[in-house]
Amino acid sequence: MQLFENQNLKAYNTFGMEVFARQFIQMENADEIPTIINDYLKREPYYILGGGSNTLFTKDFDGIVAHPAFGGIEVKERTYDNVLLRVAAGEPWDNLIQYCIRHEYFGIENLTAIPGLVGSAPVQNIGAYGVEVKDTLYKVEGFRISTGEPFELMNADCQFSYRNSIFKQALKNDCIITYVWFQLSIKEHFTLSYQGLANAMAERELPMKLRYVSECVRKIRDAKLPDPKIVGNGGSFFKNPVISSEEYEDLKSQYPDLIAYDAPDGQKKLSAGQLIEKAGWKGKRMGNAGTWKNQALVLVNYGNATPKEVLDTAETIVKDVNSLFNITLEMEINRI
User: Fold this and answer.
1) What pLDDT is recorded for position 203?
2) Please, what is the average pLDDT of the chain?
């Protein structure tokens, strides 16, 4: 491990907020985590920070920020149909995507170009274009901070739901994830339930190959989302709201072009981006913060935005959407 004092976190959060952690621990090996827990995390306020792609720091952090810096991808088992991978928490997510494309392992290609580290993926149950991480996750390894003891949770134990998991609920702030296991298909298998992706493949007249599906996903994302290395952002800032079918039909009568997807228990999941756009917020700014010109769901730091500017913008969007649709948007991003 490496310990740093008064660490600037600007390079560790994709919003580019210039905030400082009183102490910053770079965890370089999973074996040292019990010592880090006992010697540091049990004594001070702490936050476990992955790639910072879903985190908005609202002020300096008066405690310890611990960051996994160990990577690696290991094949644990291979059968005629499937392969089982054990991936270290500090491995960049898109590195795993590229590894799977090279080896032709199917299942997570729709999650191409999502920023962040592998260890964060099950916390948020990341998803895009008809696929969620729960669809291929086999199990999660890590340590409980409250006890310092190791744990293993199988997929069914992780209590996955839309952008949610046990790591955001019962085990919130009590886990350091060290390894995530994925069971992927060796046999050709694609998910094209997202119409935009299916259309993009058809328009480009591409053969149904793993690398081409991944390329299409990347092009769709690049067209909609800003590169956080150039324009600070945290990706989708709000969750897509889920409403009853009755509420949906009522709104549909007022807004015939309303986008909706089927959700559990007969409910409907709306497009938060469309609601925000209809509220007049696409590409709109408040000072140095605002929404992206190509995707209203993404709040951005147009340059030197303060956390207060970002939060004020988000709260105004929530108010305007609620006034128009009687729907209260819920922030997807973690506020620290």
Assistant:
1) 80
2) 91
Please report the pLDDT score of residue 90 as a whole number: 95
Q: How far is CA 300 from CA 9, 93, 161, 221, 231, in A?
A: 17, 22, 27, 15, 7
**Pick from 55, 77, 80: which is nearest to 65 by CA?**
55
Asked whether residue 52 falls in the same domain as residue 88, the answer is no
102 catalytic residue (yes or no): no
* Percentage of the residues of the chain whose pLDDT score is greater than 90: 62
DSSP letters, 95-124, are HHHHHHHHHT-BS-GGGTT--SBGGGHHHH
Would residue 218 count as lying in a domain?
A: no
Q: Is 62 in the same domain as 120?
A: no
Instruction: Judge if 98 and 114 occupy the same domain.
Output: yes
Which two tokens mark 329? 């948007």
The answer to whether residue 199 sits within a structural domain is: no
Which residue among 91, 109, 120, 163 is the active-site one?
A: 163
Structural domain ending residue among the three candidates 68, 98, 116: 68
Q: Where is pLDDT greater, at 139 or 191?
A: 139
From 120, 215, 236, 309, active-site residue: 236
280 and 248 within one domain: yes
Residue 315 designated active-site: no
Same domain? 238 vs 301: yes
The pTM score is 0.85
Domain boundary among 14, 40, 68: 68
Count of the separate structural domains present in the chain? 3
> Secondary structure of 129-140 in the HEC alphabet?
CCEEHHHCEEEE
Is 332 considered catalytic here? Answer: yes
pLDDT level of residue 289 (50, 70, 90 thresholds): very high
139 forms bridges with which residues in the sheet?
A: 154, 181
pLDDT at 155: 97
Instruction: Kindly report the backbone phi and psi dihedral angles of residue 121, in degrees, each rounded to the nearest multiple of 5, phi listed first.
Output: -60, -45
Q: Measured between alpha carbons, how far is residue 211 from residues 16, 207, 214, 224, 334 in Å? A: 31, 10, 5, 20, 32
> Closest Cα to residue 182, out of 134, 218, 230, 128?
134
